[in-house]
UniProtKB/TrEMBL annotation, chain B:
Species of origin: Fuscibacter oryzae
Cross-referenced PROSITE patterns: ABC_TM1 (PS50928)
One Gene Ontology biological process: amino acid transport
InterPro entries attached to this UniProt entry: AA_ABC_transptr_permease_3TM (IPR010065), ArtM/GltK/GlnP/TcyL/YhdX-like (IPR043429), MetI-like (IPR000515), MetI-like_sf (IPR035906)
PANTHER family, alphabetized: GLUTAMINE TRANSPORT SYSTEM PERMEASE PROTEIN GLNP, MEMBRANE COMPONENT OF AMINO ACID ABC TRANSPORTER
Keyword Repeat: no
Protein name per the record: Glutamate/aspartate import permease protein GltK
Length: 274, 218
């Protein structure tokens, strides 16, 4: 793992972020700064708000209060008077949003397009990029993901692991400054998890700033610069992985991490006998 | 017991009736699709006023029987508006407005059936609402809409027979006329049923085939 000195440049800044769904407070004032090149893993029980927080960064969820800036420019500033509650105009939102790339649990590839067309779609439609150059770059990206033989296939003809790698290539094609991953391996068959993780490790090593929601604590331990534990809509712990995962102090983090150790212990006899 | 000479002897009347039926089917399906596209899309823009307007339209025309709509436009509307409405316009308007409500529902349901993840993924790429609709949502929704659109269009062709009640000379109207002077309702109405079968069975088979194709494209 290469630690670039990430002391200076904050790329993503979240301030006093609140999110309310109806009566329920999902996020209760989250402050988070992610520096350039940093790999941050969000963990927490289901319902802790980790996916909601991730989806707030590119405004797939519209927060109710606070401020989000990406590379110094606000994508969200609370405004009670604006129709959607955001002081930042929609046009600016779309522009800043394309600085982020997102990878989803269910891949969400466009089923009516081939792998290659999926990767080309963002640059062509959003950036009005040159078609030939985009095509060449998309082929390169797919080759980096080990998918050079599948560029002409439709998503339904690909395995889950291949689909997710196309989805990573699709996000990379927009040259994002930060990549957001929402449980990228949770929907995969166990034997396909490795290939997607490898693609993510490669991306992290290339210096990409990443915010990742995952249950794969092993991955967090190996790749993350920081692990953040969310509990009931607030950040309960924030620190380097060996501190958070090996020496948890927060009682709920203890039981959360402990459960994973327990599961592993429970499964070990079965795994060894098979 | 059957004497089909009444059909052959009066064939020109049946033929003219069939042409009128086909003409009204084609015109009202085309106009209905345009109405359906507009009414369906305004319900998806996110504006509450427009959505309500579309909803009201759909509920009115979906819940009043087509026969009542036709009779109302032909006999009642001219009195309200102080206009004279020809048979052609009454039949065309009634059928198109009615079909539009059903097509609008098919469109709305088709768009809403597309997985939320598609809109998430295209939004995350930075696409505007228009780009998302045009590039991602509508192309997928149209494929799913083909079978119900075909089905509704077949119903629409059969519904044209109701125009005979406002004396539009369609196939059924001509048949009633032939029956009234030949006193052979058995042969005449059997023939009408047969003609609709010959017309619509191939279309039904075609829509089945389209259904299979769209199933494969999922």
């Amino acid at each position: 793992m290469t630690h670039v000195s990430n002391t200076s440049a904050p790329l993503l800044k979240i301030e006093a972020l609140r999110l309310t769904f109806g009566q329920r407070d999902v996020l209760k004032g989250v402050d988070l700064t992610v520096n350039k090149g940093e790999v941050v893993v969000l963990i927490g029980a289901s319902g802790s708000g980790k996916t909601s927080l991730l989806r707030c960064i590119n405004l797939l969820n519209m927060p109710s209060h606070g401020r989000i800036t990406i590379d110094g420019e606000a994508i969200y500033e609370a405004d009670t008077k604006a129709r959607d509650g955001n002081d930042v105009p929609a046009k600016t939102v779309n522009r800043i949003r394309s600085r982020t790339g997102m990878v989803f649990q269910q891949f969400n590839l466009f089923p009516h397009m081939t792998a290659l067309e999926n990767v080309m779609e963002g640059p062509i439609t959003v950036k009005k990029a040159d078609k030939e150059a985009t095509r060449k770059e998309a082929l390169d990206l797919l080759a980096q993901m080990g998918l050079q033989e599948h560029v002409g296939k439709y998503p339904r003809q690909l395995s889950g692991g291949q689909q997710q790698r196309v989805a990573i290539a699709r996000a990379c094609a927009m040259h994002p400054q930060v990549m957001l991953f929402d449980e990228p391996t949770s929907a995969l068959d166990p034997e396909l998890v490795g290939e997607v993780m490898k693609a993510m490790v490669d991306l992290a090593r290339s210096g990409m700033t990443m915010v990742i929601v995952t249950h794969e604590l092993g991955f967090a331990f190996e790749v993350a610069d920081r692990v953040i534990f969310l509990d009931e809509g607030t950040i309960a712990e924030d620190g380097p992985p060996n501190e958070i995962l090996l020496r948890p102090t927060h009682p709920r983090l203890k039981s959360f991490v402990g459960r994973f150790h327990e599961t592993a212990d429970l499964l070990r006899p079965f795994l060894e006998s098979s | 017991m059957f004497d089909f000479s009444v059909i052959t002897q009066n064939w020109p009347l049946f033929w003219n009736g069939l042409l009128v039926t086909l003409l009204y089917s084609a015109l009202s399906i085309a106009a209905g699709l345009v109405i359906g596209l507009v009414i369906g899309l305004i319900q998806l823009t996110g504006s509450r006023t427009l959505a309500l307007l579309g909803r009201v339209y759909v509920e009115i025309f979906r819940n009043i029987p087509l026969l009542v709509i036709l009779l109302w436009i032909y006999y009642a509307f001219p009195i309200f508006a102080g206009l004279s409405v020809t048979k052609f316009w009454a039949g065309f308007a009634g059928l198109s407005l009615y079909a539009g409500a059903f097509y609008a529902e098919i469109l709305r349901a088709g768009v809403q059936s597309i997985d939320k993840g598609q809109s998430d993924a295209s939004t995350a790429l930075g696409m505007t609402y228009g780009q998302r609709m045009r590039r991602i949502i509508l192309p997928q929704a149209f494929r799913r809409m083909i079978p119900p659109l075909a089905g509704q269009s077949i119903i629409q062709i059969k519904n044209t027979t109701l125009m005979s009640m406002i004396t539009v000379p369609d196939l059924l109207y001509q048949a009633s006329y032939v029956s009234s002077f030949t006193y052979r309702p058995m042969e005449v109405y059997t023939m009408v049923g047969f003609m609709f079968l010959v017309l619509l069975v191939p279309l039904t088979l075609l829509s089945r085939k389209l259904e299979k194709v769209s199933e494969r494209m999922k």
